[in-house]
């Protein structure tokens, strides 16, 4: 079991969930996720677990952290849970980002809650040659992430849709503004599917390697129910499961819709 250390609001409707654990089957890797049972006190409502990507992990302190937005019944229940509450988690699950240290000039592009898995990734890459491009609706949604990424010492660029930060616009537009003068060797990205489509298109056009993390509705989280199947571009394999072969895929590996 896992026990809540903290469950606090760090932005408008955005919460940081910090958990202590006794033991894990393996070390969680950036890009993986946990399936959290949010129903409490013997209730089965809601029945399905909720998948949350790993925001941070500390093996020495036996802590794992998640960032989530309250969007429905499950996350609303989760946001009301207090410290010392025990939670039932499955994980770590899924396929992580690759962490080859020789990727050269690396760009991380995160939009909205897609920013969450990029923090642990940035921390684990341990590369001084990282440039991070983040976008959200407004400055209030970015303040927590800004503080955390600045703590890693990476080059950070911010954009908001409702007000001008570095620009007024999306993480995608922000990144495209820098692309011509600073072409990356490798890209990691997570966020709205329209953003992923555009980043993938630009990278493939310019022969830039990279990976993306997609968000799919998941029933079981372990590859049995097939509710998170993605169509692939490979002729020898029609579908892949976001919860097993993903949620991280190589650019051009699966069909995105936007």
Automatic annotation (TrEMBL):
Keyword Transport among UniProt keywords: yes
Listed cofactors: [2Fe-2S] cluster; FAD
Biological process annotations from GO: pyrimidine nucleotide biosynthetic process
Protein name: Dihydroorotate oxidase B, electron transfer subunit
Species lineage: Bacteria, Bacillati, Bacillota, Clostridia, Halanaerobiales
PROSITE patterns per UniProt: FAD_FR
Cofactor binding mode and count: Binds 1 [2Fe-2S] cluster per subunit.
GO molecular function, one term: 2 iron, 2 sulfur cluster binding
Residues holding [2Fe-2S] cluster: 220, 225, 228, 243
Residues in FAD-binding FR-type domain copies: 1-99
Family to which this protein belongs: Belongs to the PyrK family.
Key words of the record: 2Fe-2S, Electron transport, FAD, Flavoprotein, Iron, Iron-sulfur, Metal-binding, Transport
Organism field: Halanaerobium kushneri
Pfam (any one): DHODB_Fe-S_bind
Sequence positions that bind FAD: 50-53, 67-69, 74-75
């Amino acid at each position: 079991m896992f026990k809540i250390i903290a469950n606090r609001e760090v932005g408008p409707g955005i919460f940081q969930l910090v958990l202590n654990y006794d033991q894990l089957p393996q070390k969680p890797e950036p890009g993986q996720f946990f399936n959290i049972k949010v129903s409490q006190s013997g209730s089965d409502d809601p029945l399905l677990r909720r998948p949350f990507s790993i925001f941070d992990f500390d093996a020495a302190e036996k802590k794992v952290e998640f960032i989530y937005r309250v969007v429905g019944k499950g996350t609303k229940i989760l946001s009301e849970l207090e410290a010392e509450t025990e939670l039932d988690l499955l994980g770590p699950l899924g396929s992580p980002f690759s962490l080859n240290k020789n990727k050269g000039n690396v760009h991380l592009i995160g939009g909205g809650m897609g920013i969450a898995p990029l923090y642990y990734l940035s921390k684990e890459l341990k590369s001084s040659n990282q440039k991070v491009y983040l976008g959200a609706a407004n400055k209030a949604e970015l303040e927590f992430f800004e503080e955390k990424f600045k703590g890693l010492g990476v080059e950070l660029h911010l954009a908001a849709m409702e007000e001008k930060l570095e620009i007024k616009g999306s993480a995608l537009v922000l990144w495209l503004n820098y692309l011509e003068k600073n072409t990356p060797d490798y890209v990691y990205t997570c966020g709205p599917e329209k953003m992923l489509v555009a980043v993938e298109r630009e990278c493939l056009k310019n022969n830039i390697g990279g990976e993306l993390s997609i968000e799919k509705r998941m029933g079981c989280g372990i590859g049995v129910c097939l509710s998170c199947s993605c169509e692939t571009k490979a002729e020898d394999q029609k579908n892949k499961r976001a919860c097993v072969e993903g949620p991280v895929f190589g650019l051009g590996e699966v069909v995105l819709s936007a």
